[in-house]
Every structure is written in C-alpha cells, then in structure tokens.
Amino acid sequence: MDQSPLIPKPFRLGPFVVIAAVVGIAAVAFAYTAGWLSPHRLTPKKLVAGLAPPGGPALGHRRNHAKGICFTGTLNANGDGSTLSKAQVFVRGQYPVVGRFNLATADPNAADAMVRVRGLGISITTPDGQEWRSAMIDAPIFPASTPKDFYGLLTASASKDPDAMKEFIAGHPGFLTFLGWAKSAPWTSSYAEERYNSLDSFLFVDQSGAKHPIRWSLIPAAQPVPIAPGDLAKRGPDYLEQEITQRVSASPQRWTLVITVANPGDPTADPNKAWPADRRTINAGTLIVQQIEPERDGPCRDINFDPTVLPSGITTSDDPFPAARSAAYSRSYNSRTAESSYYPRTDAGAKQ
Amino acid sequence: MTTARTRFTAPQRLLHWLMAICILSMLFIGVGMVSTVTPKYLTLVQIHKPLGIAILVLVLIRLTLRLIYGAPALPAGLPEPIKLAAHLSQVILYALMIAMPIIGWAMLSAAAYPVVLFGGVHLPPILPVNPGLHTLLWHAHYYLAFAFFAVILMHVAAILFHKLVRNDGVFETMAPVLTHDRSE
Hints:
heterodimer, A: 352 residues, alpha+beta, Catalase HpII,  Chain A, domain 1, two-stranded antiparallel ribbon, 8 helices, globular, B: 184 residues, mainly alpha, Fumarate Reductase Cytochrome B subunit, 68% helix, elongated, EC 1.11.1.- (chain A), heme (chain A)
C-alpha cells in the first residue's frame, strides 16, 4: 500500500454528517420494516394478544384452541386425490398421523359445554419426507372474511362498550351467517361425531402443474347424536376427552377425507362464504384415529398445526387467512414453548 | 494472515458484496416477516429459509478463501485500538454469518417444523424436537439479528470514516472498483 504520510488536516464536519446520515437512514428503515413506526400495523403480537381473556393468556398453552387431547392414527389414501394433487399423501397407501381434538377457547380448563366451536389439528407425514398440517373446525364457515375483520371481531367482543358488537355486525353482516350456525346447529357429545372443515381454500397442484382451488372436510363415520348444551354440561366439564378416550380404545374412529373443488368464480379468498352445495367432491381416503393420549405428555403437544406446512402438490391460494394463521400460530408456539414450566410434563426427563 | 496485496482478491470482493446484499436483505426480511399477518408473511418466510442456507454456503466458501488468500494489511499509521476493533469486528461478523443460519436451522428442527428450501427440497432436522432448546435458539436468533444489524451499521460507519475522513486506502481494499488514483 503506497502509504502517503498522513498530514494532519483541519477538522471537517461534512464527512461525519454523511456517516451519521447513512447510519441513521439505515436504522430508521430497519425500524420501519420491523413495524416500530407503524402502531396501526396488525402484527402477530396484536392478533395473538386479541385472543387472550381479560386475565391474560394461560401460560404454557396454545393461545387459542387451548383445551385439547392428542391422537395418533393413519390416513388411508385411496388414490383418488391424485387426479387433483401430486402430493404423495394422495397416492394409495397408509400414512402416519399425529393430531389433536380441541375446543376453540383460550382457556385450557374451560367446561366443554361453554365452547361452541370444536376443532381438529392434523399432521400427516409421507415417506418422501413431506408433511401436511391442517387445523380445521366444525363450523361450516369462518366468522370473519379477512384477518383484519377477525381482529375487529376479537376487539369488539372484548370491548366494554355495549354497542361494540352491534357496530361490528352492522359493518360485517357476514358474521350473522356464522352466528346463525352457532345458534341453530345441533351440539353433539363426542369429538367423533363432528365434521371438521378446512374453511380456507388452498390450491391442489396436479402432475401437469395445473392448479385446482379446493377446500376439504373430514366427515365422521359416527352418526351425530344431538344433545342440548345443558345436558352436555351435566356430564361434566371434561366429558369430551373422557368420551373420545373410551370410544377410541373400544374401536378406532373414522372420518372420510372429502375434497371439494371450486367452480370458476367461487369465493376462494373468503372463508366466511360457503361454496354452493352442488360442487364436485372427491373422496380421497379415510382418517383412522387409533389411540388417544393426554396432551401434557402427548405427541401433539410440541406440534404447531400451522396450516401453511404443506407438501409439494398443495399450496396456499388467495385466501389471506393461512398466512395470518401461520404468523399468529408461530407467535403462540414461541410463547407457549418458553412457558413450559407453567404446564409441566409428568414424564419429566423423558422428553426434555 | 495478511498478504502483500493491497486489495482483497476479486473472488473475495465479489463474495463480500454479494453477501452484503444477501445479509441486509435477510435482516430486513426477518424483522419484516415477524411484524405482519398479511400474505407477505409467507412470501418473506419462503425467502428467508433458502437465503439463510445460501448465506451459510457462501460464508464457508468465503472463509476458505480468506484462509488461502488472507487480507491486505491495515495502514501502518492506524492507531492500535482501531486496529483491534477492526480485527474484532471481522471475527464477530464471520461468527454471526456462520452462526445465524445454523441457529435458524436448529431452531426449526427443535420445533418440529420441516425445513423447506423450495418446492419439495427439504433439509433434515439437525436437532431433536425440544421446546427448551427451541426457546433458547429462538431467543438467540432474535437478539443476535439485532446485534448483527448493529455491527453492520458500525462496520459501515467505520469504513466511511476510513474513506471520507482518513482516506487511508482501507475502503479500496474491498471496493468493487478502484475509486481513486492509487494503483495496485
């Protein structure tokens, strides 16, 4: 390096202003990207906080669908789904499943009869190393059309303002469809008698690369037996978990995996809108639930049933919810796994 | 580990600037993705994972080149504390470039997430599923990202200081093209 002797120069402010400006602009751009300058941005943190009851979240538990029980079983694919998706999970065969029956509540100790919506999370793995995760509920439609509306619903229902819900409904009439289901649909006394729906639309990608907008449902083999919520309450706060444990130990429980294909123009971006009942359906196989295990030490505990964990052959569609759910579920997972001491395992050591 | 060259070799300079773009993008994608619930979230996550692995591959190549070709000496007249800071910052930057992708990969493994690069291409898990490890790694990934950005800002401030205040040739060692009339 031809090092010329450094002659002391007079101090110049200019270069330091340039340096401060470059560093300052970069730092502000970073802060903006992180959302620190946008208090109105709907962040995963806000969305998850919106789910918490007034007393705060139940530490160590999922921030929603907090009450649940694990299961293991198989998906027996019949091969018919392969016409729509190249995913190995639709090739005729038997694939292992880890899942979770749950109640849509932030309270892991909620009484069964207090929770209207029931859910099922599922993770199916195939020999090619791919995985399909889904979290479904028994409602036929979602209460809101967009993640922003859903946050509005959470805010309104938590509000002390007696008119908050009325105002929300006035601005979001789609919620009435959900409310209609919630008020009129019969309750059952078993997780095994529920139909679970993806609600969100996804795209199946076939061997030729063609994309098919679809939704899916798990339709129970067990005949639903209606029960009044008051009668369910009399059976005890945790009846559903006791019932499914006994039922599955007596015999495996089955659901048919039904794929519904959209017609052009069907609302794929809005899970609040059902598709007409006459849409083409394909029976892709059978979910067989073979064993129930309590969540505390169970195989579903450490799984985030993130609906965007998809095998090659399934992708997200223009439905904005899977992205929002993925972002929020991730935050919930990070929080609850850091709080394990509030929900200790009983077989401490075995899985730690 | 110095060389008589006055500039880093062309492959080293290329890697430096390529990785500068990758790493800055990575840090912005990282803080951006955890702040949104829009569909951008998925796009950003889908870029974040393969880009992280790409950075890991690139930094290993870069470290190898560094061990082979070394680095030009710092100007003789540079005060010792600044020399020490320069060496330390390089060690820290290399450590972060190597550690961050591995921590990210390990964190996903400990949380039972598949590590999807693109389409059907997955990486194997490098840790068993373990919530305690996941928490540790997640915190490390999160806080080290901010530390990484801070160190990069200091690196930028320092090199601008070398160029604009001292004009001592340090910037030219890594400049993509020669920016003043010093000959090599």
